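lol forgot to send this yesterday, sorry. C-alpha cells for the thing we talked abt
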C-alpha cells in the first residue's frame, strides 16, 4: 500500500510556518534542516556567528515535539563528556549510568571542529547506528536522533578538520548566510519590543505541530513520493561523474547516492509535490555532495570551489525528460 503524502505535505507546511515566527530570512536553511530530519539523517551547518544556528535547532525541536541538547565542543572535551559514564554508587554498592547529552533527539554539536578527532569519533557510532557503547555495554538512542553539527567557516585557528569518514555521515551541508536587508531590518525592529526571536520562542507563540512519536511514523510517508527509474539513474550518474572529473581528487561515495535520492524525495514533499523532478535533484546536489568532494591542489590554488565543480557536472549531464 502506497502511503498517503497529503498529511506529510500539510505537516511540513505547518512546520515551516511556525519556524518562520522565530527564524527570519533563512527559508532555504529551514527547508534543508527539515529534509535532514524527515529523512532521518544528519546535517552539517556552516555559518558565521550570530546567524541563529543554535536558535534554529532549538526551534525545530520545539515545533516537532522533540528533546534538544547542546554540546559546546572545546579542545579539552572528552568522549565521556558526550556519551556519559558509569559512576559507582556507594549507597547501592553498584555502578550507575550517568547519561551524557547524546541521549536526546536533536543534538547540536556546536563548533564540532574545535575538539580533537578522538572526541569527534565519539559521535560516529551514534550517528551511524543510533547506539552508544559505554564500558562495553550498548545503549539505544531515540529512533529520531539527529545531529546538527556547526562550524565557523572563517575561524580555523585551533581547530581540527573533520575526518572524511565523519563528514560522509552528514547527509547535507547547510550554509547559513546573513539575512537580506529587509529581513535584518525586521529583526532589528522586533528586538526593540517584546517580539525578539528568543522571546517569541519562550512565550509559547510558536505552536507544536507534531510529537516525537508522530515523527517516526511520518517518515514512512516519504515512500509515497514517486521517483521514476530514469531519475534514479540520473542520480547515480551525477555521483559517479564526481569520481571521474579532472578537478576532483576524491569523489563522492555510494552513501552520497543514497543521500541524494532521499534528499530529492524530501525536497519534492516540501515543495508540495508527490513526485520528484530533475529540479529537485539539482537543488539538492550541492548540499549533499559539497562536503564530500576533495579537489586536486592545483585546482584549489586557482580558486575553484567544490560547488562550481558540481554545477559543471550538472550542466554536462543530459537531463532525463
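and heres what i got for the seq, position by position
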Amino acid at each position: 500500500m502506497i502511503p498517503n503524502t497529503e498529511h506529510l505535505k500539510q505537516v511540513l507546511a505547518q512546520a515551516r510556518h511556525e519556524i518562520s515566527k522565530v527564524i527570519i530570512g533563512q527559508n532555504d536553511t529551514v527547508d534543508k534542516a527539515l529534509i535532514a530530519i524527515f529523512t532521518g539523517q544528519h546535517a552539517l551547518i556552516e555559518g558565521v556567528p550570530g546567524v541563529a544556528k543554535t536558535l534554529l535547532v532549538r526551534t525545530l525541536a520545539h515545533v516537532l515535539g522533540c528533546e534538544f541538547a547542546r554540546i559546546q565542543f572545546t579542545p579539552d572535551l572528552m568522549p565521556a563528556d558526550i556519551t556519559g559514564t558509569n559512576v559507582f554508587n556507594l549507597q547501592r554498592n553498584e555502578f550507575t549510568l550517568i547519561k551524557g547529552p547524546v541521549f536526546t533527539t536533536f543534538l547540536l554539536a556546536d563548533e564540532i571542529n574545535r575538539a580533537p578527532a578522538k572526541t569527534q569519533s565519539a559521535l560516529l557510532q551514534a550517528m551511524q547506528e543510533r547506539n552508544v557503547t559505554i564500558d562495553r555495554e550498548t545503549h539505544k538512542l531515540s529512533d529520531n536522533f539527529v545531529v546538527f553539527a556547526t562550524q565557523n567557516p572563517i575561524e580555523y585557528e585551533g581547530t581540527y578538520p573533520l575526518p572524511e569518514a565523519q563528514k560522509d555521515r552528514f547527509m547535507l551541508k547547510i550554509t547559513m548566510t546573513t539575512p537580506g536587508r529587509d529581513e535584518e531590518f525586521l529583526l532589528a525592529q522586533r528586538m526593540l519590543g517584546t517580539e525578539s526571536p528568543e522571546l517569541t520562542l519562550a512565550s509559547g507563540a510558536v505552536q507544536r505541530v507534531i510529537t516525537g512519536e508522530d515523527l517516526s511514523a511520518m517518515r514512512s510517508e516519504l515512500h509515497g513520493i514517486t521517483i521514476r527509474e530514469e531519475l534514479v539513474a540520473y542520480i547515480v550518474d551525477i555521483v559517479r561523474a564526481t569520481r571521474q572529473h579532472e578537478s576532483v581528487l576524491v569523489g563522492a561515495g555510494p552513501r552520497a547516492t543514497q543521500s541524494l535520492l532521499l534528499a530529492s524525495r524530501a525536497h519534492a514533499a516540501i515543495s508540495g509535490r508527490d513526485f520528484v523532478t530533475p529540479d529537485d535533484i539539482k537543488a539538492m546536489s550541492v548540499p549533499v555532495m559539497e562536503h564530500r568532494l576533495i579537489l586536486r591542489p592545483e585546482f584549489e590554488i586557482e580558486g575553484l570551489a567544490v560547488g562550481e565543480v558540481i554545477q559543471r557536472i550538472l550542466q554536462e549531464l543530459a537531463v532525463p525528460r
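The chain has a mean pLDDT of 90. anyway ping me if u want another try
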